Amino acid sequence: MRLLPSGSTALLVELDTLDDVLALYAALADEPPAGVVDVVPAARTVLLVTDPARTTLDAVAAAVRTTTPRPGAQRSGDTVELPVHYDGADLGDAAELLGLTADQLVERHTGRVWTVAFCGFAPGFGYLTQPGGGWDVPRRATPRTAVPAGSVALAGEFSGVYPRESPGGWQLIGRTDVAVFDLTRDPAALFRPGTRVRFVGA
Amino acid sequence: MRALTVLATGPLTTVQDEGRPGQGALGIGRSGACDRAAAALANRLVGNPPDAAVLEVTFGGLAVRAGSDLLVVTAGARCPGAPHAAPTVLRRGAELRLGAPATGLRSYLAVRGGIAVPPVLGSRATDVLAGLGPPVVAAGDVLPVGPPTAPPAGVDLAPVADPPAGEVTVAVLPGPRADWFGAAGLSGLVGRSWTVTSQSNRVGVRLDGVPLDRLRSGELPSEGMVRGALQVPPAGTPVLFLADHPVTGGYPVIGYVVDADVDRCAQLRPGQVLRFRAA
Hints:
The complex is a heterodimer. Chain A is α+β, with helices and mostly antiparallel strands. Helices cover 19% and strands 32% of the residues of chain A. Chain A has helices spanning 18-30, 57-65, 91-97, 102-111; strands spanning 2-6, 10-14, 36-41, 45-50, 79-84, 114-119, 126-129, 144-147, 151-155, 158-161, 166-168, 171-175, 196-201. In chain A, the strands form 4 sheets. Chain A has a 4-stranded antiparallel beta sheet, with helices on one face. The longest helix of chain A is centred in the N-terminal third of the chain and has 13 residues, at 18-30. The model of chain A has no long low-confidence stretch (mean pLDDT 93). By secondary structure, chain B is mainly beta. Chain B has helices at 36-45, 187-190, 259-265; strands at residues 3-9, 12-16, 54-58, 62-66, 70-76, 88-90, 95-97, 106-111, 142-144, 168-174, 194-196, 204-208, 223-224, 229-231, 239-241, 248-249, 253-257, 273-278. Chain B is elongated. Chain B starts with a strand and ends with a strand. The relative contact order of chain B is 0.19. The chains are: A alpha+beta, B mainly beta.
């Protein structure tokens, strides 16, 4: 664990693996140190945002160093089922990059539960991982200027669902009619770190 | 009716408050007023709580008509025609027109009772990057004003300095990836002058100057950041993130403007020179 400076109000904790991030985030999100107003996990880091009127960066650093990570805590999150039409424009390309047929790719995508590791990019966009999934998919060489809302996609070890139309370079394998971000629903964001997701053929 | 009818908006007017803290893990950024101190002053002067919503006016041009007698004030960039730092009753039917400021970029119009549009995810701030919050203010809008919640401050005029023209210097601290720019780290940033470009917006102040050399190539897994981050894309010229910055980013952050100086950066206009000094 390395503590990196992030200005006068935040601290960035860098870890070796995504699993280490999830374990530390699970502990910090449950019991954030006093004066911490936001905890933001990412692929290899956890950002702690403080209210400088209520704490100091030294105090937060000391609290992080004595936090006991909780590995595996994410396995107890809520599970949502997402029906997917596997007809994405990049389904064939993505399968070929993995040495699979399109059917095999779909089988692998639906065969095991995914977990939201962290969010970012846009409100409600989750980076989903599937332990043991063996995913390693390069992004498209040229990003699309407009990926439709509901697109189900792959990049690197992650799968994701575009909450709204936006530019994007992920490989599109399908689409879902479920809104992963909907301001008329409470909570608006279907995905939060720890949410478990099962994709099923629609 | 306690409301403001919008007659004109200038280049960009949005509703802003203190934003949506604590939702970064959902991919939702904080947003809120770019010049937090100016927005807070405007609220104080009309007796509003700190979290009341105000109008953030970019480079003047806002015109509004009062639907009832309303106590109003502006802070931040001083616009001709504005009740600047001096709370004034705008009579029912009277119009308020903000001219273009001589210095600074963003002005805050506070109304006693606060702008009472419906909140979105706990805030009335418009996040232009995420597309969250109330729509950008447009001519013809009727903006409801809430009931007063506390007595006004009883101040006739608050003596505050106008945002400066010309060169501005702010303090920086090292960022998490200062080492990507060599042993010298921050010194390349501190030793140069940077010009604010016209591509700047609520997301960030885009700077032009002699590009910084990156000693490390390769990609950085996206990581969280806060307001004040100086992110360096491959072109080598930094972006100073403001209120609507992305929650995470994949370019290295070389440094951070200290939080107390970030508000002043929100008043920089294109062409102004920004310098950094080590905090």
